[in-house]
Design a protein that fits this description.
The structure holds 2 protein chains of 2 kinds.
Chain A (H helix, E strand, L loop, with lengths): L14 H5 L15 E7 L5 E7 L1 H5 L3 E6 L23 E2 L11 E2 L5 E7 L2 H8 L3 E6 L6 H4 L15 E9 L2 H6 L3 E9 L11 E7 L4 E6 L4 H12 L6 E4 L16 H13 L3 E4 L2 H7 L6 E9 L5 E13 L7 H9 L9 E9 L13 H19 L3 H8 L8 E6 L5 E4 L4 H12 L1 H14 L3 E13 L5 E7 L5 E5 L8 H13 L6 E5 L16 H28 L6 E4 L2 E4 L5 E3 H7 L15 E7 L5 E14 L4 E12 L6 H21 L29 E6 L21 H12 L9 E2 L3 H9 L9 E9 L3 H8 L2 H7 L3 E8 L2 E8 L7 E13 L3 E10 L2 E14 L2 E13 L1 H5 L1 H30 L3
Parallel strand pairs in A: 1-13, 9-30, 11-12, 15-16, 21-22, 28-29
Antiparallel strand pairs in A: 1-6, 2-5, 2-7, 3-6, 4-8, 8-16, 9-14, 10-11, 10-13, 14-15, 17-18, 19-27, 20-21, 20-26, 23-24, 24-25, 27-28, 31-37, 32-33, 33-34, 34-35, 35-36, 36-37
Chain B lengths: L6 E3 L4 H11 L3 E4 L5 H6 L7 E4 L9 E4 L2 E5 L4 H6 L1 H6 L1 H6 L6 H6 L2 H7 L5 H8 L3 E6 L2 E6 H4 E3 L2 E2 L6 E7 L6 E9 L6 E11 L5 E9 L6 E2 L1 H7 L6 H15 L10 H25 L7
Parallel strand pairs in B: 1-3, 2-3
Antiparallel strand pairs in B: 4-5, 5-10, 6-7, 6-10, 8-9, 11-12, 12-13, 13-14
The chains are: A alpha+beta, B alpha+beta.
Chain lengths: ~950, ~300
């Protein structure tokens, strides 16, 4: 094919529509009579769902329907297992998939409990507050090791423990490697990840057309075809009665895959049932709980090396947090397991993981999909080994790269696609040299760093390698049609989320057909246009769908040959196709492709038996296995050790995704990926407390890196073609974020060489870095703790008696309204608390007094609930009499849940201290006044 | 994230605004730039029954110079103040701090008075105005009163504003001769709530000794804190490195008992206050020494 477009920096054809606001997103879909949905979600991480009282919400004006699990009838069933585990011997896997609405039990904060359908989202949210959810809390399962301890509370009670999966893979003889090693480095690594944080949250609109008996669903899915097939099956419809449209989507990053999310399954069901279009748009707060995410792994890993730094073997045992359900199987931990090997020759590998159920939202792949965890472990082990052996960081990597002549390279373990982990091609060492050159490694180490250190500046360099398994099966398809107008229509089944599919696929097809790219019109993500395929994930869109486009265009090209050779009476090899025409070589006989298309679809006359009309072909491509992209990241950063703040000064990526379709699109993917990686390294972390409450459930406290934190990435390309497909493509979607944490950690250690810290965890934060520099253990803030002492200039008995008097206590409470004795030693009350922007929230409170020892000490348990969340906790109070009066020592530990837990962390400490202090001061004044009236004590 | 129902009024004069506040009492909440209140309403943390939108009161947006200093209308946008040449000359500390307030888009809507009345403990503007010795003109049904910053910020999001009163004007006194200033903060990302910050002014005598230092700390307490112990360490002193470190140490160890949260432990905040105070003072002394004997340019 004449390569005019493939490999060129072709501007994105979709950008005009996107940048002028003409692109359709799901939330742009407005339909007559459309209803809106809000979900009532669990405030508790774990608990028995004793009842859902929706009566008041159903009566709310403007509410059309309220559904709980009980209202779903037969439609209530757990979602499908999307990715069955690979056939690894002795593998254990327990499939526990998510349910549309919680029944019997809630297993993470934000799990949907009831669905409200109303005339507007405002009304739906108003009515959500009227639903009374009765949950009997159970202990949360948060920490991975604690979750696996004997007797731990179980997330799924039909299982014997919280073990979701256990997988062992081995190649070579690690024990022998270890025995023969010059050095074995062993460390524990923590690698945590967070949200996908797409700029567009999820959204679903469904419309049932009773005349056509057809359901149309607009869905922000990466996989419209599986969603269509699944919805048809669930709803008892033919697949042809369901059309799923995934229009423009503002970022996918993994979690928008075919999840059959509760909202995705319930909105179409409600639209059919109610006979009106229904929309649900996820808001940013919901996104923290309702959309899947990635989280942590804890690795105990060791590396055995020879004296010269040659890798003899690796052993890695890790725990993987899969969240409350595991519908996506083992993709993430198997990616970690397989990607750990990187571009290196590892003769012995012994790897074992345990996936653990926790009471946190579901974990499924997010850009990188577990690969960064593996890369971090391997790259850190190599850095530590290099240091211990006195080797340069580059030297140890050079020594261990698989050389160019070792491909295809079989690692003899299984990859996430169930096939063997075989690298198709690679050329790793030159990429390292190129990256080292671009970042100026040698000169920096030799000249600049000593000079900067002498000037008191802490600037460090990091350089790491990685590979990325991309472009896996099963397959994608495409249909290419030349229309009589000369326009070329390309339809494929994958969804698009900003990657540049419209441009990349058009480049491929335009080259094969010899037409101008402006003539090529690409349609993706509409099941009416193309209904075979899987979706966009695993950095496979360009590789798999792109190759299918190539195959379909090639068939059309052959068809052009057939029709034109008949027309001109010449053999096909005498024809050439260029500039939108087919021409008999060396003559002026030619025809426009549009005209040829018209001739191939005659209105009269005969189409020969056994042939097809039109210039159209459909083709599929299913790779035997994935292609392995690779690269090197290098960066320079500066740390201010006094403030623990870090600034990235320069970032270089040398990337090899085989043959490039469009370098500009690849650079965009890399830049975006690096931004994601920098977020993961230093800014983004989902902070869960011991009760499974997310402490940063807004973009105020969950810190996405912005343009001021992310440098402009300098990208260089290398092109080691894949032998697996005709163009030689490999994927690029995730590469940018995979090695960032490892590179960041190495550079940070280097910058702070005089502090001798070792970084074995990502993400970091300035707070964490400060603790590392101070050699202290950071405070884990699981609870709000209020403690202190307060001196009353009064006798102990007076203070004690006052504390037994509800009428007096009420005055010390913020907005205390009532407090009544409700039992032998319990009080019920109603309290209004308002801090700053928080309007006086009404809490119903029960206080139970325990362990009373008059007049010395007592304990109490507090349970408060409000529309904004709940608080539960305990307090101990001790009174000691001294010469100046009575000292009250108090310590309260409060668990905070619900919206205030996710949004109010910044103020909780100050607010709780303040409320306590003010309360005690009021109490003191009251007592002093009373004592004054009664005469001196 | 849709707000609970509320009634909405948009007065065009201060008197009408006050009348609406009086009519609706505790139910009503004045709306200035809306950059804090609206998100709180969308999260349903705030549920005022009545909003009194001050954005159409044109008479509250101005920056002007008067004998006693610079007067800024409460509804003047932060971005306007940031770019105002008079503010750069007369209150350079405020001009230096404003770019740290969130992002330009937010400052285009956010108002100086809104930030003062909201009194967020991590707010830059309250701390800066405290360091500058500003005072606030409050109007209520019974007339006007002026409250100095020291007495205005009373607690966590709490101020001296009485129910039914509106903040109408901010008065920043003219800077004395030989006065230097500095604003520094540490935030996770540019535009975030600062983990800690320092706004300082230092007035020197002819010999370069400290006559008065006003050091306001933000993000480390229930409101802006005037670091009095730190200031005392500097009185009559030359800015030696040792002296600045002692003052900074006093600020972090004695003037505050900082809270801890998911972004910064109490210990880390103390460290930041020590470092930032030292850096702010060094800059302020330098600028004070460089400035002439004449009060302000």
């Amino acid at each position: 094919m004449a390569e005019r477009y493939v490999g060129a920096r072709v501007p994105r054809s979709e950008d005009a529509r996107l940048l002028t606001g003409r692109a359709l997103f799901v939330d742009d879909v407005q339909l007559d009579g459309m209803l809106h949905v809000a979900f009532v979600r669990s405030e508790h991480a774990h608990g028995r769902l004793r009842g859902v009282d929706a009566a008041a919400a159903r009566r709310h004006p403007g509410v059309v329907a309220v559904y709980t699990a009980a209202d779903l009838g037969d439609y209530w069933k757990p979602g499908p297992l999307l990715v069955p585990p690979p056939p690894i011997p002795d593998l254990i896997f327990h499939a526990c998939t998510q349910v549309p609405l919680a029944r019997d039990k809630v297993r993470h904060v934000g799990e949907p409990v009831a669905m409200i359908v109303a005339e507007s989202r405002y009304v739906a949210e108003d009515a959500a507050a009227d639903v009374i959810v009765d949950i009997d809390p159970l202990p949360a399962v948060v920490d991975l090791e604690a979750a696996m301890a004997p007797g731990a509370p179980r997330v799924h009670e039909h299982l014997a423990s919280n073990l979701a999966a256990h997988v062992v893979q081995r190649t070579g003889d690690y024990d022998a490697a270890r025995a023969g090693a010059h050095l074995v480095v062993r460390r524990r690594f923590h690698y945590d990840r967070g949200l996908s944080a797409a700029i567009e949250n999820r959204c679903v609109v469904a419309q049932w057309d009773p005349r056509a008996e057809e359901l149309t669903v607009w869905d922000t899915t990466q996989a419209p075809i599986p969603i269509r097939n699944g919805l048809a099956a669930m709803l008892g419809l033919s697949e042809s009665q369901v059309r799923v449209v995934a229009p423009f989507i503002g970022g996918g990053f993994g979690p928008k895959i075919m999840m059959y999310y509760p909202e995705e399954v319930l909105v179409p069901w409600a639209a059919i049932r109610l006979g009106r279009p229904v929309k649900w748009a996820e808001d940013r707060h919901e996104n923290f709980f309702a959309t899947t995410q990635e989280r942590g792994q804890v690795h105990d890993a060791e590396l055995a090396v020879a004296k010269d730094g040659r890798i003899l073997g690796v052993r890695d045992v890790f725990l993987h947090d899969t969240g409350a359900y595991d519908p996506y199987g083992l993709t993430v931990p198997i990616n970690s397991q397989c990607t750990l090997l990187g571009p290196y020759d590892v003769p012995a590998y012994d790897t074992e993981f345990t996936a653990v159920f926790t009471t946190k939202p579901i974990v499924t792949p997010v850009r990188g999909a577990g690969r960064q965890h593996g890369v971090f472990v391997m790259e850190r082990l190599l850095d530590i080994a290099a240091r211990d052996l006195g080797l340069d960081r580059l030297a140890i990597r050079r020594r261990n790269y698989l050389s160019r002549d070792r491909f295809p390279h079989d690692h003899h373990i299984l990859f996430q696609d169930s096939g063997p982990l075989v690298y198709d091609s690679g050329d790793y060492a030159p990429a390292l040299e190129q990256a080292a050159g671009l970042i100026g490694y040698d000169r920096f180490i030799r000249e600049e760093q000593p000079r900067l250190r002498a000037a008191g500046r802490h600037v460090g360099i990091g350089i790491v390698s990685y590979i990325e398994g991309t472009g896996i099966g099963p397959y994608e398809g495409a249909r290419v049609t030349i229309e009589p107008s000369g326009h070329v229509r390309v339809a494929t089944g994958v969804g698009t989320q900003g990657q540049g599919h419209f441009t990349a696929f058009a480049q491929i097809v335009a080259d094969v057909l010899g037409v101008a790219i402006e003539r090529v019109h690409v349609v993706t993500g509409d099941t009416r246009e193309f209904h075979w395929g899987t979706g966009t994930f695993a950095s496979r869109g360009a590789v798999v769908a792109g190759t299918a486009c190539h195959a379909a265009a090639t068939k059309v090209r052959e068809r052009i040959g057939e029709v034109a050779s008949r027309l001109f009476g010449v053999s096909a090899d005498q024809l050439e196709v260029a500039d939108g025409r087919v021409r008999v070589r060396g003559t002026d006989r030619s025809i426009d492709l549009g005209a040829l298309s018209a001739q191939s679809n005659p209105l009269r006359g005969a189409v020969r038996p056994g042939t097809e009309p039109g210039l159209e072909a459909t083709a599929y491509y299913g790779p035997d296995r994935g292609s392995t992209a690779s690269g090197v990241h290098a960066l320079l950063l500066e740390v201010d050790p006094e403030t623990a703040m870090v600034e990235i000064l320069k970032y270089v990526v040398v990337h090899d995704c085989g043959r490039l379709i469009n370098p500009m699109l690849v650079e965009g993917q890399v830049q975006g990926g690096v931004a994601h990686g920098i977020g993961n390294a230093f800014y983004e972390q989902l902070v869960w407390d011991a009760n499974g409450q997310l402490q940063n459930a807004s973009l105020m406290d969950y810190l996405l890196p912005t343009a001021t934190e992310v440098p402009r990435v300098e990208t260089a390309h290398r092109e080691t073609a894949s032998p697996l497909n005709p163009i030689g493509l490999k994927g690029v979607g995730e590469a940018g974020c995979i090695p960032t944490g490892a590179a960041f950690a190495q550079a940070l250690e280097d910058a702070l060489a005089d502090y001798h810290i070792e970084i074995t965890e990502i993400p970091l934060s300035p707070d964490r870095l400060f603790a590392l520099l101070q050699r202290t253990t950071p405070e884990r803030r699981n609870l709000v703790v209020v403690e202190g002492d307060f001196l009353f200039h009064l006798p102990r008995r007076t203070v004690w008696d006052a504390l037994q008097d509800p009428a007096l206590l009420v005055r010390a409470l913020p907005g205390g309204m009532q407090l009544e004795r409700s039992g032998e030693s319990s009080y019920d009350g109603l309290m209004k608390v308002g801090v700053g922007p928080v309007t006086a929230a009404e809490f119903t409170v029960r206080v139970t007094i325990l362990d009373q020892e008059p007049p010395v000490r007592f304990g109490m348990v507090v349970d408060g609930r409000s529309a904004l969340g709940f608080t539960r906790g305990s307090a101990q109070v001790t009174l000691t009499e001294g010469p100046e009066g009575t000292t009250m020592r108090y310590r309260a530990e409060l668990q905070i849940g619900g919206r205030i837990a996710g949004l109010g962390q910044r103020l909780l400490d100050t607010a709780s201290r303040l409320i306590t202090r003010q309360g005690l001061e009021v109490l003191h004044r009251e007592l002093a006044t009373r004592a004054g009236r009664e005469g001196p004590a | 994230m849709k707000p609970a129902p509320f009634a909405y009024h948009r007065p065009e004069t201060v008197d009408d605004g006050l009348a609406l506040l009086a009519a609706h009492g505790a139910e009503a909440k004045p709306l200035a730039g809306g950059q804090s209140l609206i998100p709180a309403m969308n999260f349903r943390l705030a549920r005022p029954a009545v909003l009194v939108d001050l954005n159409r009161i044109a008479a509250l947006a101005y920056v002007r110079e008067e004998a006693d200093g610079t007067r800024i209308g409460a509804m003047t946008r932060q971005r306007t103040v940031e770019r105002d040449p008079l503010v750069s000359r007369r209150a350079p500390l405020l001009a230096e701090a404003l770019p740290h307030v969130a992002h330009a888009q937010i400052r285009n809507r956010g108002t100086l008075g809104g930030s003062v009345a909201h009194a967020d403990p991590a707010g830059e503007i309250p701390a800066v105005l405290l360091a500058l010795g500003a005072s606030f003109v409050l109007r209520g049904p019974g007339g006007s009163r002026t409250v100095p910053a020291e007495r205005f910020f009373t607690g966590l999001f709490e101020t001296a504003l009485a129910p039914g009163e509106l903040l109408v004007e901010i008065v920043i006194p003219a800077m004395r001769a030989r006065t230097g200033w500095a604003f520094v903060e540490v935030a996770r990302r540019h535009g975030d709530y600062a983990l800690a910050g320092v706004a300082a002014t230092v007035t020197l005598d002819d010999a370069g000794r400290c006559r008065e230092a006003r050091i306001a700390l933000l993000g480390v307490s229930a409101g802006p804190v005037l670091a009095r112990r730190a200031a005392r360490e500097l009185a009559g002193e030359l800015p030696s490195d040792k002296r600045l470190r002692e003052a900074a140490g006093a600020a972090s160890a004695k003037d505050i008992d900082p809270p801890g949260d998911i972004h910064a432990s109490s210990a880390y905040r103390r460290q930041l206050v020590a470092v930032l105070t030292r850096r702010a003072l060094a800059t302020a002394f330098e600028r004070g020494a460089a400035s002439g004997a004449e009060p302000g340019p």
